[in-house]
Predict the structure.
Amino acid sequence: MKLSEKIQILRKRDGYSQEELAEICNVSRQSISKWEADIALPETEKLIILSNTFKVTVDVLLKDTLSVEGIKEVSSCGNNAIKKKKSALFEGALIKESIEDENILDYIYVHKVELWNTGGKPKYWTVIFFTSAQPDFPELVSKVMISDKNRGGNWFVDFKQENTKFIVFRNKILKYEIGNAKEKSIVCDECRKLGIPDEQMHWQE
């Protein structure tokens, strides 16, 4: 089975339109169409995104002779297609200096990187603006956030998924519904207990 066929089958299996998959991969819908028509091939970084999105290895995608057991096309009965519910993208900003294990970057798509002058030490922070289609991304990133008084205390990353805001520390995931002042207040109180000053709680929503 060719890569082009696998992309189409997996996309339909997981209920993505070409437009939705294009958004995840940060390409045009026409690019997805060309991949599925075997006119063009995804770049390496796009293959990794496809692998993470479809929960298959890159080898499964690339090797025609490799078994693709479990990859089945979405079946339909009448007008009702059976679709697997997909997860919305997580989107936010991650300070690279706040993580202990850079392997977490394998689970995100980097849209932009900025250097922020801190006015202290370290002089600059590397800020990564990202999206992630990894369903358990909050749990994964919570395992690698720095929590060490000698390295800046309790670091956190904030991001959102649709209408839910996440504030994630080492082994602690806080979240609230955007627009719900009561839930946000509870999250802010928890952040204060972890030593976060109020001026760092002006999260973009």
In short: The chain has two domains: 1-60, 88-198. Helices lie at 3-13, 18-25, 29-36, 44-54, 58-62, 137-142, 181-193. The domain at 1-60 is CATH 1.10.260.40 (434 Repressor (Amino-terminal Domain)).
